[in-house]
Amino acid sequence: xxxxxxxxxxxxxxxxxxxxxxxxVQSGHPGGSLGCTEFLTVxxxxxxxxxxxxxxxxxxxxxxxxxxxxxxxPVFYSVLSHAGYFPKEExxxxxxxxxxxxGHPTTHEGLPxxxxxxxxxGQGLSVAIGAAQTKKxxxxxxxIFTLHGDGELQEGQIWEAMMYAAGKKIDNxxxxxxxxxxxxxxxxxDVMPLGDLNAKWKAFGWTVLNMDGNNIEEVITTxxxxxxxxxxxxxxxxxMKTEMGNGVDFMMGTHKWHGSPPNDEQLASALAQNPETxxxx
Amino acid sequence: MKEYPVLGNKDxxxxxxxxxxxxxxxxxxxxxxxxxxxxxxxxxxxxxxNPERFFQVGIAEANMMCIAAGMTxxxxxxxxxxxANFSTSRVYDQIRQSIAYSDKNVKICASHAGLTLGEDGATxxxxxxLGMMKMLPGMTVINPCDYNQTKAATIAIAKHIxxxxxxxxxxxxxxxxxxxxxxxxxxxxxxxEGKDVSIFATGHLVWKSLEAAKVLEAEGISVEVINIxxxxxxDAQAIIESAKKTGAVVSAEEHQKAxxxxxxxxxxxxxxxxTPMEFVAVNDSFGESATPDQLMTKYGLDxxxxxEAARKVIAKKIK
Lengths: 281, 319
Hints:
Number of domains of chain B: 2
Radius of gyration of chain B: 19 Å
Oligomer: heterodimer
Number of helices of chain B: 12
CATH topology of chain A: Rossmann fold
CATH superfamily of the largest domain in chain B: Thiamin diphosphate (ThDP)-binding fold, Pyr/PP domains
CATH superfamily of chain A: Thiamin diphosphate (ThDP)-binding fold, Pyr/PP domains
CATH architecture of chain A: 3-Layer(aba) Sandwich
Structural class of chain A: alpha/beta
Number of helices of chain A: 10
Number of strands of chain B: 14
Largest sheet of chain A: 5 strands, parallel
Mean pLDDT of chain A: 97
Radius of gyration of chain A: 18 Å
Largest interface: A-B, 39 and 32 residues
Order of helices and strands of chain B: EHEHEHEHHEHEHEEEEHEEHEHEHH
Strand content of chain B: 15-25%
Strand content of chain A: 5-15%
Helix content of chain A: 25-40%
Shape of chain A: globular
Order of helices and strands of chain A: HHHEHHEHEEEHHEHEH
CATH class of chain A: Alpha Beta
Low-confidence stretches of chain A: none
CATH class of the largest domain in chain B: Alpha Beta
Shape of chain B: globular
């Protein structure tokens, strides 16, 4: 399928961008970024109705996305640039002085595509709810998408927002949880078990979907299904299983690459596994 | 000395509630959120008249602050309502990241500030809020002094683009600012002209400063009372000009000495015009349960404390 091949190429290029960005400044978060590459690539290139060439904060009549787990900024920036929000050459400025590509995303430097600062966890679902309610007040039929880390669900505010969204019937909202089962200190079950996530979201009154976040076709069909379920009085969440570090063999199957950059040799290996497709920045 | 007749007695939170009601009628972009304190914040009428623009979030202040931040995306002007303690210290990180750093046009409206909350005690008597909020880059911080000024301030902040912290209180206090007095954010309001001492006061301490000025005038001391309703941005020019004229400064506020209005004024004066200064404020202490009047007396926030501070600072004047 031609379209899947195109998305695959974009993903490969984004994986290259991610490892090159964090390698260049020897800081940043490659693991979660790699795991969410397929999801964000599909969302911005196939699912969302948005206007990258003329970014406006208010996003009237556009679908909006809020990245709540802001530390995976490398994948966010790469996908935004390839979607056309800003030149891909700017990816070379990641985490450097006097630039718009801050370690964690911010509106403060005016980077097109970013509508809220994130990094301090647990806040993005509430922000998304607010944006969703304003869309309803404005009679704007567009949708709101979010992404959250699974470790982030340990923040209490997420559960405040879950209760609110169901209670107030925020049905123009599609949240996604990156369920890679890992956080900085180790496996989720060793740090603070989340229990039965499906059952918990369902008990809070959400429509719950599941998908393999590293399978492009499954991401497309699940997001399309989620869209078809909006407007029915319930918020929607997708519990998305991913592999942290996906696409770079030595970064997979461990939590160690949450916030560690590769060295020169590791970078070469990662790039060899992901040959250039659309041109490096 | 200019006299300020008492026009009535009302709580400043009612000024907020009535200002919000007016905004509901005149500005369709204004929305209001409340964390289970609608009656305490006097938001009922706005809710009754604009049910589609009123959002009850329950006892979840962190959620409320970030929902408000999100609501600005698409052009709404959210006013959040809860007690001052739950509007600041409880949600500081939410305000810092999602509102201040994200440049969101949210109006954080905070009632029951300070000791005059009274019997509920120190858990609820926030005395650090002005300091916390003024430290946030881009945050406008306003602490009006009576019903009329609070109503005017509430209406004024809807027109200001950017995050605002609006602080008001629970008890009924004298109304003395004329109803038609325009509210200009960042512009100090001269209440009396004087040449011996400047009293810079905010919130409930403004009326007490006028009372203090009467006592001092009777002793032959000419007092300049200036109402600093906007803590940030601070009207530095008005402060420097008055200090130049009087050579002695007193600050008066219902807040900790550390981080409060007095500290901001001291910074302006130390940099531009070092001037002897005294601070009427709570001195590194939590409050406790009692009536508002008992607490203001015990913690040194009465008019007599302002009188004593003025005498003291005049004695320290640089000859």
